[in-house]
Design a protein that fits this description.
This protein is mostly helical. Helix content is 70%, strand content 3%. It contains twelve helices and three strands, in the order ααααααααβββαααα.
């Protein structure tokens, strides 16, 4: 009997959160199904399909260290959970989709905190903060990065001998016109860079110096990679007289550039590891 109780205690931190996740999905299917669908069909928001599951896995894995402890619900986080679900319903009835999705993500992210909040307060809050990256709050940054990308492209084009004319967010060549619209902002690469670098640093670095250098370097690569993507597309359009398929469908081309820079970043992390705080020697 005692062995059965011990076995149940070991799986409790995994079963209870998963049961609550399933209940949320069933009871709020009218919100979560469209949210998952929007992530699946959107290039800008698709990271949510990866961020939220990773956040849940990190949180539940962390709970594995508490397996022999009972549930330790936090009434503070329970209040936040109740309020988030209440505001989710209000947002849905008011037809405010962004707010509805916002509170839907919050409700999922804090589930482990609701169940084990008094223990979690002594542990790393990274899984929950990481899950917050899935919140639909990135769109206001699109015009900002669009403008930055346009300025960078205009400067790079000024260094070439290619005849061009700039008007608004358009760059006119002899053979055609390129428009730096919101889809060219590079926000999708920026979000990917933040997600990948934060997760990598959480798993492999201990010191803040190495973490900051690693995160900043990948963000810089994402910015530069997007500028290079736009510039290369303009070059390809110029030399092929706008006949290349890349000119009209360049999403894959951008991810290829990002992947190449990501490989360089992983190689750079070898140096960041050399300046990181060494792990404690547990053999002594």
């Amino acid at each position: 009997m005692k062995g059965t109780e011990l076995g149940f205690a070991k799986i409790l931190p995994f079963v209870v959160p998963l049961a609550l996740y399933a209940a949320l999905l069933l009871l709020r299917s009218e919100t979560y199904v469209p949210l998952l669908s929007s992530w699946w069909s959107s290039h800008e928001l698709s990271q949510g399909l990866i961020i939220l599951p990773i956040s849940m896995i990190l949180a539940i894995t962390q709970l594995g260290g508490w397996a022999i402890r009972p549930l330790a619900p936090s009434y503070l986080w329970l209040s936040v959970f109740v309020v988030a679900n209440f505001l989710l319903v209000i947002a849905r009835l008011s037809n405010i989709q962004v707010a509805e999705y916002f509170f839907a993500v919050i409700a999922v992210v804090i589930v482990p905190l609701v169940l084990f909040g008094r223990i979690a307060s002594k542990e790393s809050l990274f899984p929950y903060l990481f899950g917050a990256l899935a919140l639909p709050v990135w769109d206001p940054l699109n015009p900002v990065f669009q403008h930055i990308s346009f300025i960078a492209t205009r400067v790079i084009m000024g260094l070439t001998t290619i005849p061009h004319y700039v008007e608004g967010y358009s760059i006119e060549l002899i053979d055609g016109t390129f428009v730096i619209d919101t889809g060219c902002s590079g926000l999708r690469y920026m979000i990917s860079a933040i997600v990948i670098s934060l997760l990598y640093c959480h798993l492999y670095f201990r010191g803040w110096k190495a973490k900051v250098l690693s995160i900043v370097s990948l963000i810089a690569f994402a910015l530069i990679g997007n500028w290079l993507r736009i510039f290369f597309i303009i070059l390809i359009g110029h030399f092929t007289r706008m006949t290349s398929s890349i000119v009209h469908d360049h999403a894959t081309f951008g991810w290829v550039i990002f992947a190449c820079l990501l490989v360089c970043w992983f190689y750079m992390n070898r140096w960041f590891h050399s300046i990181d705080i060494p792990a404690p020697d547990v053999s002594k």
